[in-house]
Amino acid sequence: MTEQSSKTEASPASLVTELLEEEAARQKAAAEREAVVLPDDLLPGVGAEPMSLSEGLKDGGSSLLAVIGLLGMIEAIEVSAFAVIAPDIQETLDVSDTTIGAIGGAFGVLFLLGSVPLSSLADRVPRKVIAGAAVTFWSMIITVTS
Fold first, then answer.
1. CA-CA distance, 45 to 90, in Å (whole number)?
2. Which of 15, 71, 98, 142 is the most exposed place for a label (fewest CB within 10 A)?
């Protein structure tokens, strides 16, 4: 009997048993690995000379500061725009104050739900890539809905 035909004849119970054995072996191997803990003096920035704000801005911080400021201004305009047009939306759609409040509160909920996975992703991927992708995605959304 070939390996291919024996796999097709395997019972669900044997597949589950094999899966559980593989998972137990994986967990045992993971437990045997030691966690890498760096001493404080090897952590980035520890023990280095303090950097003044002007030095940080010279090292490329001014462009980052400008981009963050611009994005903050756009976000403030967006929030203000909703506050300005909310009465018109309420009148046009004939919705209650509660509904308008829920629409405004949805921003906070979506921010909370998005910040957890994005902060986890920021630990694994360069933040420049995440910021660029987020700005590009938001720009596409704004363009499509305009």
1. 52
2. 98
